[in-house]
Fold these 2 entries.
Entry 1:
Amino acid sequence: MIPGSQSRNTWPRRRQFLGLLFGLGFVALAVWMSRRGSSAKELGPRIATEIAKQPALSVDVIVPSRGGIQRTIQQPAYIQSFESVDLYAMISGYLKSQTVDIGSPIKMGDVLAELDVPRHAKAAEEAASLVEQARAHIMQVQARIRMTKADVAAAKATVAQAESDIDRLVARRQFAEKQYARVSSLVAQQASTSLLADEQQREVEAAVAAERTARLAVLTARAQLQAAESRVDLAKADVADARAALSVAEARRAKELVNLKYAKILAPFDGIVTRRSFHPGALIHSATEGGKEPLFTVQRADMMRVAVLIPDRDVVRTHVNDPAVVSVDALGGQSFAGTLARISRAENAERLMRVEIDLANPKGLLCDGMYGKAIITLARNSSNLTVPTACVVEHFGKTQGAVYLVRDGMARRTEVTLGADNGSLVEILSGIGPRDDVVLRARGSLDDGMRVASVVRNMVN
């Protein structure tokens, strides 16, 4: 035991004992005066005066600081490649060549492997021939359209000629009818012979027959015109059909060309090959034909994705761009600084929410599957008041406590609502104000209503 420590520890007890004796003396004095008939009005001021003469207890007070507590959370961290892709074959064939292996660095667009696909090459040639055939058919049908249009023009000319002949024959018939009427009049007057009348009648009948024939010729010419126009429409339909056939042929050719492109397996991004499944000469089945084994697995390595699961109680305090430090066990605890890049905004069955931290990996030290821990600095509530944890003299419940405030030279016990506590500082959510003097420590036993002499100390965060 340190010398003198026992006397320092017993001094507060002696003061309490002396205070008790002093109080008992005043009680005895009050009883004695009451027996002598003194009134309560005379006793009260005397007792208050005597109490006021007691020495004030010395206390240290502190002013609350606004800004809340900087809170951090430490959780396991799972390091994953930023992008990871399994590369499958889109067409079946034999593995002709392969330029990479496990661990090979790759650049976006690099040819990683090539398949031998002769059937698709022949199909592409056939599709190209079908395209040329469809184009030739279109040219033929277009020539037919031009020919049928010429037939339409000829038919129109025939119709016009036939219609003009009708006008001429109508005029001839009308003239013959007039001649016949004149000759018939003369015969009736016996100025002419009946033989002449018969000849004029035959002229009229011939003119009528010629007119009838001309009208039938017009009908025939119009029918021929309609047939020619129908052949034009048919030729136009043939052109549309030929063009559709050309489109089908071109689509087939484009499909086969795409299949030929699929024969080359290209790198989708800059990264590294982490898996290779086949060797040259192997028969590769496409994914659409039952191939379940990828040719390669490639991963992006210049940037890593760190997955962290945040417990439910800290979800509301987690925000994008919160700073984080990730230390990796496999690298001897080496730390990497980053920020929260993504928050899933959904908790799983264990009430954990996934967040992700992006870490640059220029030297390639981080690898997919590494394990470590992440310390994330959560956002603080700048409106909360903060005091040292030693100010809280009582705790009841999870969020309730009590502190002493100095008001008008008296110690006042005050109940408060507690927030975050980091062991040295605690947040006070309600119960005190930013200008209150909060008792940090007392030079003796402190009770509610006790006179105190305070020494103010500014808070240090």
Entry 2:
Amino acid sequence: MQKIQIGIVGHGNIGKGAVKAIAATPDMELKAIFTRRNPEIIASTITDIAVLPISAAEKMTDEIDVMLLCGGSATDLPEQGPFFASMFNTVDSYDNHTNITSYMAAIDAAAKNNTAVIASGWDPGTFSMMRVIFESTIPDGENYTFWGTGVSQGHSDAIRQIDGVKYAIQYTIPIESAVKAVRSGKRPKFETKDKHLRQCYVVAEPDASKAEIEEKIKKMPHYFIDYETTINFIDANEFILEHSRMPHGGMVLRSGNTCGNTHIMEFSLKLDSNPEFTASIMTAYARAAYRMSREGMFGAKTVFDIPLSYLSPKDRDSLIKELL
């Protein structure tokens, strides 16, 4: 069997998860990891995989079928997404909901001869699919999405971009009374702040102003400004001991009616490792990107554009027999 050749850009939390996901996928092979850091440092922890500087990627367009872009949405993907989509089929997990339209336009302009799957994590991504299914099934209703309790990679990454921040992690916490109101079938109306709390743990650099860091976090557009946000400054030892794991999860619900009957639809996730699960989703979409590119389906694509069967290594007959 000819394996799909995969490249990884970035060896942070998602990149490390992608290495594991590809190793567990029989029809794929990891060709190389590309990094902005010193490749020798990463190579010392990984055997039998080439670790190269990002600049080396341009010379490997004929060797890599799909590139997984594992950088953050705040600063990495807006630059790396269009750059790599101009040369490779790509998959990313861009998660800034507010800017998805403009990001997709930039990717689409770059991916003239490639397939570029954007926002393929679980939200946006899997949860987005459920929102479409739920809304299409019960037109008379309201969708609700709750995240957590868990670590938001995108929000944590956004905090780490602030000058003076050494380490940071952000926990998203659903407000239980809001969840109960939805499950009751009342179809409540919420302001942004009514559904979630945001709790941040930050290790500041020794000479940094904690007051300035806190102000920048709480006023950050798209991420924190609309939420009740708590900032906790801790030391590095406590951070490593208490905040090294990255669990997450959440739920999508729809409360609606058909001819006077009330229905509640719900899909939920409980994840021990947010980055590993996200990387596993991206790996499945790498298979879809590869198949679509071979059919000439180029440009930026979302989870709405991809047939479910393209995600699976199984053929259509097996899917129908085993899962339908």
